[in-house]
């Protein structure tokens, strides 16, 4: 099956999702805010969020790596970091019910963005596309994303497509000033003929979709 344009940029992102035991969520967040500086001493953290809507007791974090050997070196260093292992990993293991990780690239037409200001919320939208890769659905998907951008109600942060994990998965991250601002913008978008036409073309390639509203933790670079 076609996999789309050649991936020329070696930079990739590891998306890690942790399901936390409900009675341990507050403690986990407090511990992350206190000790995550030991982890970020080794590699770049893009963002760290907790799910507010669409899921519960879930933490999402995204890490940037220059290439796969870079990640290997970081993981080896983390295994030898006594502060990280002792102060965070050891107590955290008893708080985590499930871990999931994916490796993803930014789509070629998207650069990682930043919100215009701090204090908003992030929408994490996961699309499961039909097999065939960006060569099959890439242009239609891009048109749908651009149609939403052009409405002006939301800010695109990034579009990631998976390399490891469930293939033909695309994660889109948006930023909005508030959940109410996002809701009002969505209502306007649903009445915009340009958005309706672009989405109608894109959903021909869509198998499923899931949304989460994420709130950045205190230590998150993206706030």
From TrEMBL:
One of its GO terms (cellular component) is mitochondrion. InterPro entries: Dimeric_a/b-barrel, NIPSNAP, NipSnap_domain. GO terms for biological process: mitophagy. Residues 13-111, 122-221 form the NIPSNAP domain. Signal peptide: none annotated. It comes from the Eukaryota. PANTHER family: NIPSNAP-RELATED, PROTEIN NIPSNAP HOMOLOG 3B. Belongs to the NipSnap family. This is NPS3A protein. It comes from Pterocles burchelli. The lineage of its organism: Eukaryota, Metazoa, Chordata, Craniata, Vertebrata.
